[in-house]
Amino acid sequence: MNVVNKLLKSLGESVNLKTDNWTIDHQYISGMRKWIADIVPSELLNRSIKQAVESLVTLSQDGIFYEKYPNNVETPDYGDKWGVNANYIEINNRAIAQMIDNKTRNGILSTIKLLPAIPPSAKSWANCVILSQIFPNIYGDGYNKPAEEENSIYGIKLGGSYSQNIIDFDIADKISPSEQFMAFNNLANFHGLKTGFRTVISADQIKVVQRDGSDTNFRWDNPVHVELFLKEHVDLVNNGFEAIFIDSAKHIGGYDMGNYTGVGALPDYNQMQYIIHEIRSRTGKTHLSFVGEKSTDDFARYENLGLSTGTGFIEPDDFDVVKNAAIHFKYAKNYSPGIEVSNDNDEGGRTYESRLNRVNNSLFGYEYPSDKLASFMQMEDIFPLRYDTNTHHLMMSNPSYSTDGTSQSHWENLFAKDDGREYNKKVAELFSHSLNL
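and the corresponding structure tokens:
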């Protein structure tokens, strides 16, 4: 039984699928590529997993409707160097998790529900969903807190399974946490997307779980800790993830530490070379993409490290600046710097018009589609958040915006409403023009 059918049966659902008429009424079509737009996320998040799977099958990129989910789903194939040109879209899967009273759970199921509304990959480049949280966060994992209390997603535990915020542990006896990730990745691939996750490398932001239940501080000079770090990341790649976004990557090996904002030691340069090489070697996957945060000012340094691209090379407000940079780096196919529509430190305040302009320039700023620079977007760049929160706030804290203690209320109030719907429609129009290039 494939993992998607296993997920459906674990949730008490039938594996027999039907055409989803709601999806047909909301679909955008660009050639053979289809997705849902002109929506607010709560419309998807309030649906069941069965409805999400039927939605994805209804949007099938090959035009075939599958009455049962297919067994053989492959990742979109853009060759080994796909990461150099991809659009990376980070989804804060903790923020969209089910929040019931003070508990947070099942973020991976919520992200599956959101998949139909993420534009699939183009002819010339991949779109890749990056998940903000995989591992347990150090303080308050599985709980939401008031908006003013810190509950950072940047502090993680290794060796203690996966986050209570993300995995549905109520069904873990029927479908394991690893298989839940496999199901997500399989469904994303079916929709024409690649997937990845954010990781942390600042030593004092990582704890190691011990058998006696205690935690110890992670240390890069401890071979046991390094091997655990490797194992955890290899396991996730073997679950189907194909990209790893490395927080604070610019500063690996003590580079430009005057601008370092993380906490604790970073791996040595040669040590990180080894880690990236070992992840590729142990998984046997030569096409993996490693994205470095702000790793964009010493290109040889990052290429030799094993990265595919880095964020924040230039501001994408000016179309001609983006186009000229794309022309300049058109032959850099091992490593090329990327641009940001916004990043995880975004504190809001940018107008919808400015965001749309940055999305436009990221999607079209080149002479030929094969020259396109990689871009990095946040959930907010496709699904605008409510006015009094922002991307960075949701990374640093885990508030529920529910007015009655239910998930439905949280999902409705987390995002902008009528203006968010109109913005989402405009983003879809930009993507619709780009997907057949």
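(Above: one complete record from the training split.) The chain has a mean pLDDT of 96.
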